[in-house]
Amino acid sequence: MLIALYNRNFEEKDLPLLQHTFDLLCQNNVGVVIYKDFYERLAPHFPFSETPKLFTSSVDLPVHTSFFLSLGGDGTMLDAVCFVAGSGIPIMGINLGRLGFLAAIPKDEIDLAIRSLCSGSFQVEQRSLLHLDANIPLFGEANFALNELAIHRKDSSSMIKIHTFLNGAFLNTYWADGLIVATPTGSTGYSLSCNGPLVFPQASSFVITPVAPHNLNIRSLVVPDDSVISFEVEGRADQYLCTLDSRMEAITSEVQLAVRKEDFSISLVRPNDHNFLNTIRQKLFWGIDSRN
Fold it and tell me: Which of 70, 199, 235, 266 could join 93 in a cystine, given CB atoms 3.0 to 4.6 angstroms apart?
């Protein structure tokens, strides 16, 4: 078994846990391939007897990698999606960050997580992504997102107008600070903070959520994920922001955008006792009676 290890930022207090993770993998005779930058940050603290296998991108990630272990928060998990892309390598997230909807396994359960991978006692959930098409190159080969696409105003405090079309038919003009198109996975992220609905990960849908809309009667809309949603943006500024998960590009009103369901999905691994309902109860205090 070969497991890829990825982290983009750790604190000194995380070092004992990281050392424990390496020890667990070694004890279970698991081979590792480590993200090069992660290894270089670890090397001054860890007694590596020899340089392990390293990777820097999806290109040099070994095709026979069994699992991709993301050590960090949800942002780290979103990075992991770009490395795995359509390879089919399952991703497991250990939460070293704060909220942790995607990296839902708490760090004090790292032993359980490693044991579940080694014993095969885990569940694999398929998560859909969205794909961005544009009339200019945007985001290179990583023009997909697990959570959401968002369009934002950039250099002005004025609202922007986002003319939105569903399968070529005019849907609405959103006068707002921005607009979000979220996957079911992304419904617990930015869209939720803008009053969008929670959607089960298995739902075949997109959620269109405006950011601070001027019209009070404009609300989130759930549409089938076999739809193509296209946009034309205008406003007083010369540029706007287009984001895919945590990545962003500046665009002008000349850029035409459209999103659709990506052709491939992402496999997320979780121990058998973890599920979406447990996660929203724990992370959102769902159903907690605050009077107690």
Answer: 70
Half-sphere exposure of residue 63: CA atoms within 13 angstroms, side-chain side: 1
| pLDDT tens figures, 105-118 | 888 888 888 988 88
Residue 149 to residue 86: CA distance in whole angstroms? 19
Q: What is the pTM of this model?
A: 0.90
**Cβ burial, residue 54 (10 Å; 0-12/13-18/19+):** middle
CA dihedral 114, 115, 121, 125 (to 10 degrees): -10
What are the pLDDT digits (tens) for 163-186? 999 999 999 999 999 999 999 999
Maximum CA pair distance of the chain?
A: 63
Superfamily of domain 130-261: Probable inorganic polyphosphate/atp-NAD kinase; domain 2 (2.60.200.30)
The beta-strand segments (E) located in the chain are 2-6, 31-35, 53-55, 67-72, 91-95, 105-106, 122-127, 130-134, 144-145, 148-153, 160-166, 169-176, 178-182, 205-211, 221-224, 229-234, 240-244, 247-251, 257-261, 266-271
**Would you tell me which CATH number, out of the four given (3.40.50.720, 3.40.50.10330, 3.50.50.60, 3.40.50.410), belongs to the domain 2-128+265-284?**
3.40.50.10330
Q: Token pair for residue 2?
A: 């070969």
Which DSSP letter does residue 90 get? -
Cβ-based neighbours of 261, under 8 Å, separated by 6 or more? 128, 129, 130, 131, 206, 225, 226
The half-sphere exposure of 128 on its side-chain side, counting CA atoms within 13 A, is: 23
Which class for 204: exposed (0-12), middle (13-18), buried (19 or more C-beta within 10 A)?
exposed
- Tell me if residue 276 falls in helix, strand or coil: helix
